[in-house]
């Protein structure tokens, strides 16, 4: 009984001190996100001055600025922000579910299933809408496959789920390689860009934006239960958390968020791994702060990375996944060095 009381006392409570911290943290990250989005809209192969942006808002801008801002850059910036937020929140959830700070949204093979679906549609010469739908269907198929194989005839553990995901991801990788080998030469560049992550294919940002908003509204209130779950299933059950339903909910939510992100922009690495990890180092491990902060920080990071991808060798564009990898690898190595 004393042990239970000790755990209950150690578990994060609703205390009064959380709200000021939450407002301060999210307010700062929201301001940074707004600045990044304004910068992304203004910068590009054609720079738009502040007067041009104000003219677009007031309706007095010329046709070129209006087309650039409203039809090209704003949708892409929104898609980048929503995709980065989805990947970061999914990464934070997977790290709690697997109780592993190095887990990321792709660790269970979702990106491989989505890639097989998308590349299959590209090989058949189908349109962008069908490619996106096929990617989403492939990600969901991978989710069901991994969960079914990991569950088997009994229960699943984080280790079993992780190992099953690694094996399924390897299988998807073999299928992807085969499709690239047999694919027509003229379609290979588009397929490679999709695999590296490219927001040029993000036609409409609104599905990702809506899913991110719903995720924040539905998942963030579970932050207290996730704090307890991160201690382990036995402690969580002792403190009254329904462990198995919560783990299923986290797995399904992370899978849907990842599937939506991959459908929107292809496979973009390191966002879901680096962002939650860095936020925990700065703000601690309270999921009530980490989850909404991940949405804002992940979105901001991908907006800035996409801005670099558009401008680094303008008028040519790089796949944004190349930029996130170039930023993510040294950052991750530095974090590993710091955590010794």
TrEMBL record:
Respond yes or no to whether keyword Cell membrane is given for this record. yes
Q: Where in the cell is it found?
A: Cell membrane
Report the membrane topology from the UniProt record. Multi-pass membrane protein
The alphabetical list of record keywords is: Cell membrane, Membrane, Transmembrane, Transmembrane helix, Transport
Q: Which Pfam families match?
A: FecCD
- Residue stretches spanning the membrane: 29-57, 77-98, 105-124, 130-149, 161-184, 204-221, 252-276, 288-305, 317-337
Q: Name one GO molecular function term.
A: transmembrane transporter activity
Q: Which family does it belong to?
A: Belongs to the binding-protein-dependent transport system permease family. FecCD subfamily.
What protein is this chain from?
Answer: Iron complex transport system permease protein
Native organism is Natronocella acetinitrilica
